[in-house]
Amino acid sequence: MAARVPVSRLALLGAPGSGKGTMAHKIRLHFGITSVASGELLRDHIYRRTEIGHRARSYIVAGRLVPDDFITHLVMRELQQRGDDGWVLDGFPRTLPQAHALECERVRLDAVLCLDVPADTIRQRLSSRWIHARSGRVYNTHFNPPRNAGRDDVTGEPLVQRLDDRPDAVVARLREYRERTQPLVTHFASRGLLHTFAGTETNKVWPEIHAFISSHVRSLG
Ligand code: AMP
């Protein structure tokens, strides 16, 4: 059962496929802290065929980051709806202007958890990732396969590959990460917020994150 913890405001930083979504899921299960996943917010709009989804789609399919003001507005609106509860930001901020926007809005972060995964592992993970489009549940044909091949465990519906997991989009996403997201490592380190967790296996990295959040949350309490 999830342990109830005092309010905690975390952000997950890492390349596409570094396991941010998986860790956000585990944090919710173990600590009861829910996530705000910027990519999920956008995919939900695309799925519902909204105007926001229409604007975001071409960027996502090309493996490019959507404009800063656009995603910042969407995430800030979501955070306001959450009120004073704690949360884990999954995939936001992803650029320096986005990080500055959080500071301007006086959104406090307690810690930034940076997932450091080698590029080869990332490429392999992205090419074997499958999702259930409606719920966002993620599978990996190598290390987290669905019970029935190609089918969601909960609904039995067909799984799909994300459009931005195609090889050319992956190259673009990794470039965006290097050029626009990686500068955040120095940014958050200079503010004393950065905690890096390196490794290629989720099951080995998770206990370290679990221990960190446990002690961090105790120190807040
Ligand atoms: P994700 O599911 O976090 O990998 O995000 C999927 C895609 O959504 C990214 O490749 C971007 O195109 C877009 N996206 C998600 N979060 C952001 C963000 N913070 N800034 C810009 N684009 C984003």
From TrEMBL:
Region (LID) location? 128-165
Subunit structure, as described in the record: Monomer.
Function (record text) = Involved in maintaining the homeostasis of cellular nucleotides by catalyzing the interconversion of nucleoside phosphates. Has GTP:AMP phosphotransferase and ITP:AMP phosphotransferase activities.
Tell me which stretches of the chain form a coiled coil: none
List this protein's GO terms for biological process. ADP biosynthetic process; AMP metabolic process; GTP metabolic process; ITP metabolic process
Domain of life from the UniProt record: Eukaryota
Which terms in the Gene Ontology molecular function aspect does this entry carry?
AMP kinase activity; ATP binding; GTP binding; nucleoside triphosphate adenylate kinase activity
Descriptive protein name: GTP:AMP phosphotransferase AK3, mitochondrial
* Enzyme Commission number(s) from the entry: 2.7.4.10
* Major location category of this protein: mitochondrion
Native organism is Petromyzon marinus (Sea lamprey)
Span-the-membrane segments of this chain are none
Give the catalysed reaction(s), semicolon-separated: GTP + AMP = GDP + ADP; a ribonucleoside 5'-triphosphate + AMP = a ribonucleoside 5'-diphosphate + ADP
Domain annotation Adenylate kinase active site lid: ranges? 129-164
Pfam families per the UniProt record, alphabetical: ADK, ADK_lid
The cross-references to PANTHER family, in alphabetical order and at most eight, read: NUCLEOTIDE KINASE
Q: Which GO terms describe its cellular component?
A: mitochondrial matrix
InterPro entries documented for this protein? Adenyl_kin_sub, Adenylat/UMP-CMP_kin, Adenylat_kinase_CS, Adenylate_kinase_lid-dom, ADK_active_lid_dom_sf, AK3/Ak4_mitochondrial, P-loop_NTPase
Keyword terms of this UniProt record: GTP-binding, Kinase, Mitochondrion, Nucleotide-binding, Transferase
Region annotation NMPbind: residue ranges?
Answer: 37-66
Q: Which compartments does it reside in?
A: Mitochondrion matrix
Where, in this chain's numbering, is GTP bound?
G17, S18, G19, K20, G21, T22, R129, V138, Y139, T202
Q: What is known of its domains?
A: Consists of three domains, a large central CORE domain and two small peripheral domains, NMPbind and LID, which undergo movements during catalysis. The LID domain closes over the site of phosphoryl transfer upon GTP binding. Assembling and dissambling the active center during each catalytic cycle provides an effective means to prevent GTP hydrolysis.
Q: Which family does it belong to?
A: Belongs to the adenylate kinase family. AK3 subfamily.
